[in-house]
Task: structure prediction
Amino acid sequence: MSQYSGFGARRILNKVPEVTAIFWVIKILSTTVGETGADYLAVHVGLGAGLTAICMTGLLVAALLLQLSRRLYVPWIYWLTVVLVSIVGTQLTDLLTDKLDISLYISTAAFAVALAATFAVWYRAERTLSIHSIVTTRRELFYWTAILFTFALGTASGDLATEALGLGFQLGVVAFGALIVAAALAYAVGANSVLTFWLAYILTRPLGASLGDLLSQAREYGGIGLGTIQTSIVFLTVIVGLVAWVTFEGDGARRVDPAQ
Result:
């Protein structure tokens, strides 16, 4: 029986961008927008955490359906989905913490377990967690489920480190940045590529959140004081520019890696 038989067996081109320096830059910028954008909508626009979560979840579902309907990687659709997942993941953690008064220790542990369970089920079903082989709808569903939990886990662990444990925004940027560098060095010396990728992917969320808070929060709270509007606009502008660049460079149509 073919390894692609059963649910989600429709063969598609790989739906995930190549992991390059631009990939990581856009990813970090997206996580920062998730932090500042969620704060802007919930606080400054006045939607509140609950309504913001509902609205953004609706937009995320629409973006996911659009993403799933394509047979190949389309940069603007993919990165729009990532930005919306970032906002929803942030709101999910904030709702647990602010509305349900759940400890960041508990939410961090719960999201870690949920992510581990997702990886376990994904690997049992597909025998790989490589992002270079997202070539069926089922694998793509596993992928986006894992992405959502990485954002929620990253938000919870980032808030735990910078707020509950008192690390602060500046040290948070340095600490999480150093951990990402460590993951990159581990990959360079031969560590498992799938493991190091997902570790770095998780860590970019608290790095982006710490960076967003550092730039947007008032000086009396340890930030630079740019505000959520300015920070979000600047980062979104850079994201749009980079996505346009990779689109026109031809990264939007890639072949399936025959080695996967």
